[in-house]
Amino acid sequence: AAVVVLASGTGSLLRSLLDAAAAPGYPARIAAVGVDRDCPATAHAEQAGVPHFRVALTDFPDRAAWDVALADVVAAYSPDLVVSAGFMKILGPAFLERFGGRILNTHPALLPSFPGAHGVRDALAYGVKVTGSTVHLVDAGVDTGPILAQEAVSVRPDDDEAGLHERIKVVERRLLAEVVAAVATRGIVSDGRKAVFP
Ligand code: GRF
């Protein structure tokens, strides 16, 4: 299966996917890496010899035009799967129209709790004792799509956002590689609310 990975951040999830995909027998290959800003993800792609592209919102008159441009570039790699690994932009209607049902996102909380850009901070502020990582399908909402996998991470009394996020990311890196492999070999069956690997 061909995968296009989208990232905006440090790209450590991307890095772990690139590593997983380099192992013999891994059922998916990273066809390209896309970013929406200058970020270390590009260097990870470069290092792995994977093509990369940048489609920045600021280079377009509006979000709709950006969304179409992003979908066009991604489509050029004919991906079976698109993975948002710390991509900090909401994918728009044109993108969802093209790739809906085969876009995965990782979220650093146990959805449906604490969606949005500050899942770790919000969980800490609420005082939950357990949070974790969710891999889900992307739909039109913010972190609302069908859940594919989740794993719990305990909150420690002395946790701060950075420390807790790092422990969650250790889980996310493995979970994402496992889910991509499962989707690549078994596909996904989803009724729009629930999703399972057949
Ligand atoms: C991860 O925690 C992911 O769940 C969230 O952004 C973070 C990406 O981390 N959406 P990195 O940039 O791959 O290190």
TrEMBL record:
MF-aspect GO terms: phosphoribosylglycinamide formyltransferase activity
Residues annotated as binding (6R)-10-formyltetrahydrofolate: 63, 88-91, 105
UniProt keyword annotation of Transferase present: yes
Annotated family: Belongs to the GART family.
Source organism per UniProt: Nocardia panacis
Keyword Cell division among UniProt keywords: no
CDD domains: FMT_core_GART (cd08645)
Superkingdom of the organism of origin: Bacteria
Residue ranges of domain Formyl transferase N-terminal in the record: 3-180
NCBIfam families, A to Z: PurN
Record EC number: 2.1.2.2
Described purpose of this protein according to its UniProt entry: Catalyzes the transfer of a formyl group from 10-formyltetrahydrofolate to 5-phospho-ribosyl-glycinamide (GAR), producing 5-phospho-ribosyl-N-formylglycinamide (FGAR) and tetrahydrofolate.
Site (Raises pKa of active site His): 143
Gene Ontology cellular-component annotations: cytosol
A Pfam family assignment: Formyl_trans_N
Alphabetical UniProt keywords: Purine biosynthesis, Transferase
Pathway where this protein functions: Purine metabolism; IMP biosynthesis via de novo pathway; N(2)-formyl-N(1)-(5-phospho-D-ribosyl)glycinamide from N(1)-(5-phospho-D-ribosyl)glycinamide (10-formyl THF route): step 1/1
Active site, per annotation: 107
PANTHER family: PHOSPHORIBOSYLGLYCINAMIDE FORMYLTRANSFERASE
Name the UniProt record assigns to this protein: Phosphoribosylglycinamide formyltransferase
HAMAP family with a match to the protein in the record: PurN
Catalytic reaction list: N(1)-(5-phospho-beta-D-ribosyl)glycinamide + (6R)-10-formyltetrahydrofolate = N(2)-formyl-N(1)-(5-phospho-beta-D-ribosyl)glycinamide + (6S)-5,6,7,8-tetrahydrofolate + H(+)
GO biological process, one term: 'de novo' IMP biosynthetic process
